[in-house]
Amino acid sequence: MKRTILIIVEMMVCVAAISQNSLSLVFTCRLTDGRFVQPDSIIVENLNYLRRWTETLIYPDTQYVLNVGWGIQNVESERASALQTIPNPFNGTTTVNLQMPEPGDAQVEITDMLGHVIETQNLTALQTGIHSLRITLKTPGIYVLTTRVNGKKVSARLVNTGKGSRNAVEYDLFSTKMSHTPSLQQDKSIKGSSSHPFLIGDKMRYVAYVGGIVCCDIWQSQHVSEFITLVLQTLPPPPPVQGDAVPCTGTPTVTDYDGNVYNTVQIGTQCWMKENLRTTHYSDGSSIPSGGTIPAEIHYFNPESLNILVSDTAPYFYHSPYGIPFEDRACWYNWLAVMHGDSSSSNSYGVQGICPVGWHVPSDAEWYQLFDYVSAQPQYSCTPIYIHPITKALCSQRTWNYSGVNCTPGCDYYTNNATGFSALAVGYFYGSGYSVYGDVAVFWSSSRLGSSSSAFSHELYKSDFCIRSGLNYLKSGLSVRCVRDETD
Predict the structure, then answer these.
(1) Could you point out which of 86, 140, 168, 394 has its C-alpha 20 to 30 Å from the C-alpha of 473?
(2) How many angstroms separate the CA atoms of 258 and 145, rounded?
(3) CB 133: neighbour CB atoms within 10 A?
(4) What is the pLDDT of residue 444?
């Protein structure tokens, strides 16, 4: 699955066509075997605090000209009428905000890439401020929007991906004056010539998006023409199996006794909670005793000396100590709290335990049903030589510490979570301390090892390809996910 993309930024001074006061940036994206890869967009940003601005090139735009200096022509061009298109690309209809620095008339024209006029509109007696234009195009394609205001022309590229009801440019009578906020501007000309100020030595940023993912990001002071190579270690993940990674049909969310609302996710034939349980009550309203808030010092001290309750025979939940939102870290529970007096079960649908009505604690068999299903889908497996090489597909793109090991949750975060299960690395409490946040996620099952002091659990680790399935002491504090009862 590992392929490398090279994003090559070619910056050349075009002596014949462009004066020495301009630099031309040409962007290309290629695989290592030489094949072209189409970027979604490329962002060019000037980071100098006196001249800060941002432009977005939408494919097939691949060239951008930087005009050197604070020239009056540049400033007047920028102030003449700034165009901002939201969204762009768009699905049939978009809004263009036209900024008028002074009162006047505006002529609006839309042409296709062959120069054919698609639609025009004359706007008279416009006041100073921002005016909204509603653009509708009935044919997908690339268009050029040109405005002429008080003798000055500004153009923007429009990318229509849908089919609007008609071709039209309409003035929004109910638009109000908008305050200026930083945004990705689309006010470049057809040739991608910048109207923004740029001086040799300005610190620039170039970001490429491939498959909707930020794949390359380089920051540098721009002095001379040069070649720049940006490397993407992993291609964006393939889409999930159809029907997976979406909210469960009929149960997009579930609410516990405390009023906490959890998102759900469909994976194969199973419907899972997409978040860790964080209730402090059972569904019948009875409270779960608190084992206390585990202090950060537990890394170094025995929990008994800090009045942390650790027991094989009483149910407890524990508040983890991390300074992250409660919705993320949720609670840890010992196995007695999870089961709520029910006996061990290796079969499905047997133990509601701590879960809301209509949901239950997954048995070991149900965990393996999940793992076997995900392992059987090529989209979810990173290295097929391993048993259950699916840890990455089950882990969120957030919270995981860096591991540097390919095909693990701690490497190339943006390729995590193909299944939508969204496991967070909140660690666990094991009686004499707790694991480091960012390294691991561990989940209880409802299955106990006979009458022993251990029950089965499943661990996802930052630098491991595979699920670590094994035993944990009943007194350990682990995360809980519930699975929906089977419905006929």
Answers:
(1) 394
(2) 54
(3) 23
(4) 95
Q: Which domain holds residue 351?
A: 253-484
How much is the pLDDT for 291?
A: 72
**Phi and psi dihedrals of 31, rounded to 5?**
-80, 165
Two tokens, residue 453: 């002091």
For residues 26 and 123, state if they share a domain. Answer: no
Residues 429, 93: Cα–Cα separation, whole Å: 53
Q: DSSP state, 366?
A: H
Q: How many domains does the chain have?
A: 3
Instruction: Assess contact for 248 and 271: CB atoms under 8 A.
Output: yes
CATH number, residue 228: 2.60.40
Q: Among candidates 331, 312, 286, 313, which has minimal Cα distance to 424? A: 331
Angle at 159 between CA 196 and CA 245, to 5 degrees: 110
**What Å distances lie between residue 385 and 380, 391, 410, 416, 419, CA to CA?**
13, 14, 20, 19, 20
Do 99 and 177 fall into the same domain?
yes
pTM score of the predicted model: 0.55
pLDDT along the chain (488 residues), means of 10: 42 35 72 64 79 74 70 35 69 82 84 86 78 87 85 80 87 47 31 70 80 67 66 63 91 95 95 94 90 44 42 65 68 89 78 95 94 90 66 90 82 85 88 74 93 92 91 90 86
Structural domain ending residue among the three candidates 187, 219, 244: 187
Q: For residue 407, which amino acid is it?
A: C
Residue type, 317: F
| Cα 72 to Cα 83: distance, rounded to the nearest angstrom | 19
Tell me how far apart the alpha carbons of residues 7 and 101 are, in angstroms, rounded to a whole number: 38
Amino acid at position 435, single letter:
S
- 192 located within any domain: no
CA separation for the pair 461, 469 (Å, rounded): 11
Block residue for tokens 């075009």:
14
User: Is residue 246 included in any domain, yes or no?
Assistant: no
